[in-house]
Design brief:
Layout: H1 7-12, E1 27-32, H2 38-54, E2 57-62, H3 67-79, E3 84-87, H4 95-105, E4 109-112, E5 126-128, H5 131-149, E6 158-164, H6 169-185, E7 193-197, H7 202-215, E8 221-226, H8 229-241, E9 249-255, H9 259-263, E10 271-276, H10 279-296, E11 303-305, E12 309-312, H11 316-323
Parallel strand pairs: 1-2, 1-3, 3-4, 4-5, 5-11, 6-7, 6-8, 8-9, 9-10
Antiparallel strand pairs: 10-12
Helix pairs in contact: 2-10, 3-4, 5-6, 7-8
Family: Belongs to the bacterial solute-binding protein 2 family.
Organism: Rhizobium acidisoli
GO molecular function: carbohydrate binding
Length: about 325
């Protein structure tokens, strides 16, 4: 069922929609990126599980980081007659394009993980995290670890690596939040920060941090935070490759997707903790929000926030099952 004439209101804020005929099966499309990453594997599992529970037909497409493929998939879904679309945009810049396509087709759109805006600058309903606030939690944890290690007595040979996907505003919000909390605790670390661009993957982080370490041979201790676990674990792997002791590295991840790999061996690691988000909830919430609008005319919220759980070596064993560790 389409919502021609209603969607303009949807894309600029909550609105009412006509309920779908009870006899019709609702069909939804889900566009996501980096389908081989643990975060998105679990997210799609959550979306599929919720769709099955509520009787929704769900189409899913991994577009990796290809914005053109995301836009093409949007056209394909609309041609297939979907009643709504959830999208993890590979690049926020496609927001105006995909929202216009949804508006023209008369179907609701919800953004997951990365927020996007319509062509008139208004926000699209969004499922995800409060990036800045979550980043502050990472920064607070790093500050606590610095105190526990006694590093605050001498920062002379300490460097701070901010591993950044600079084209993704959601990612940068997380890094800015981490910096704000860390600098509030230790203002002197502002002069120690190095921005390290990467593409959200672990391989990219390893390469970028390895190059950065080579360019900063005076650094004897490193602090790392990033957009996701891949960024931090990649940074830690780079320090391991250079034979830097784990005790001289403090990295705190973001999303928990690499927890099994980071803590599973039980050996000391510079990857000290992570703020785990159960991405299955992101997928499920996105599907539920679209369903409630289409089926019951329940307006979508502007924002659906999800909360984190800290995972470290002390509670990893109790989290193995829910994390799906082998």
């Amino acid at each position: 069922m389409k919502f021609i004439g209603i969607l303009i209101g949807l894309l600029i804020g909550p609105c009412l929609a006509l309920p779908a005929n009870a006899a019709e099966t609702i069909k939804l499309g889900y566009i996501y990126k980096m389908g081989d990453a643990p975060w998105f594997v679990r997210e799609i599992e959550g979306a599929k599980k919720r769709a099955k529970e509520i009787g929704v037909e769900l189409l899913v497409q991994d577009v990796q980081t290809d914005s053109n493929l995301a836009v093409t998939t949007m056209d394909t879904y609309i041609g297939d007659g979907v009643d709504g679309i959830a999208i993890v945009a590979p690049d926020r810049a496609i927001g105006p394009v995909v929202t216009e396509k949804a508006r023209t087709a008369g179907i609701p759109l919800i953004a997951v993980d990365d927020d996007i805006k319509s062509d008139n600058g208004s926000v699209v309903p969004y499922v995800g995290i409060n990036g800045f606030d979550m980043g502050k939690r990472v920064g607070d944890e790093i500050a606590a670890l610095i105190r526990a290690e006694g590093w605050q007595s001498d920062f002379a040979n300490v460097k701070v690596g901010s591993v950044e996907d600079q084209k993704a505003d959601t990612c940068m919000q997380r890094n800015r939040g981490a910096q704000a909390a860390l600098f509030s605790a230790y203002p002197e670390l502002k002069e120690k920060v190095i921005s390290i661009p990467y593409d959200n993957s672990m391989v990219s982080a390893i390469d970028a941090v390895s190059t950065t370490m080579t360019a900063n041979p005076d650094a004897q201790k490193w602090v790392f935070f990033a957009c996701n676990d891949d960024g931090v674990l990649g940074a830690v792997r780079a320090t391991e490759n250079s034979a830097m002791p784990a005790a001289d590295v403090i990295g705190v991840g973001f999303d928990g997707s690499r927890s099994c790999e980071a803590f599973g061996s039980g050996t000391p690691s510079g990857f000290r903790a992570t703020m785990w988000i159960d991405s299955a909830n992101d997928g499920a919430i996105g599907i539920q929000a679209l369903y409630d609008l289409i089926k019951n005319a329940t307006p979508m919220k502007d924002i659906y926030y999800v909360d984190p759980t800290k995972i470290d070596a002390s509670n990893f064993d109790s989290m193995k099952q829910v994390l799906g560790c082998k």
